[in-house]
Protein: ABC transporter, solute-binding protein
Amino acid sequence: MSKMKSHLFKAISLTSTFFLSHPLYAENNLTIYCTLQNEACEEVVQRFSTQHNINAKFVRSSTGVTLGKIKAEKDKPQADIWYGGTIDPHLQARDLGLLEKYRSPKQSEVLPQFKHLVEKYGDYTSFGYMLVLGLGINTHKLKQLGLEHPKCWSDLLDPRFKGEVQLPDPQSSGTGYSFLATLIQMWGEEKAFSFLKQLDRNISHYVKSGIVTSNLARGDSSVSIGFLHTFEAEKAKGAPIQSVSVCEGDSYTLGGISIIKGARNLENAKIFMDWALSKEGQELNWMRKAPYQIPTNKYTEILPDAVKPNQLNLIDFDFERFGSSEQAKKILSHWIEKIKLSK
Ligand code: PLP
Structure:
């Protein structure tokens, strides 16, 4: 190596050593707790990392499990941001002082029907997408059993559905918690728990997460309670599944995005939140040409046959009540005592 080349080589090595060892440059990381479908988490994180030159990684868990992890790691946070999952546990995390304050400028692009919620809760949590609660049915299996298609929550109590209904466990799953909250809101606690007790006779599986739709696709259960897009996604893969909006009205939730208190990569977490709320960050799933969650950015184009938020008969969901950590504790201990552990 010539003398000049050798100097140049040393200079480059020293510069890269500086960049790698200097905390400002070395820590270009982001750890995301992701509560979307696993493949959606992969795509989002990969696209974000490439575009922003940030070394992002994710861990996927269901909503209740993620909240449990954030609580347990309070004194030593292991992730920077929580992306996805039903909104109530995000609000509970805020209630418990587990979130970092950040109001993203991209909140100004939210759909008009969610503007009041963003104004109310947006200091700590942003809304990345919307999900509509309903039923998934396996049409082959119902035909085999000679059963009519259920249209209402109340149809699920028919004894002919014994061992045919799947419900995600409200303790671990945001889907299950949304269902529980929906019943309580519609009917009050007493009637809701009496319904769940009767429904328990017909339950085939209490699954850990709302994304577990393979049992329904295989026909191990003929009916599943969950978010409509998960059933549409199974249908798109060829399963004999239909999604059903229930007669009692469309209950829904919003997918939360919150920065975790004490995030080590705070600036990168803010960049991620802004991106996940942008048209570009929300059109990824649309580009996959699969019916995934409904975007909340008003400029986002959606699949022609996707559920349109303004065509739904939405119930007035009480996020204040079900996002309170006290309420959640009370409801879930009732659930555990009266249904899960009571035989
Ligand atoms: N976010 C998305 C996009 C989902 O599809 C689901 C469930 O279907 C959830 C969040 C809630 O997941 P979990 O029930 O695992 O908490």
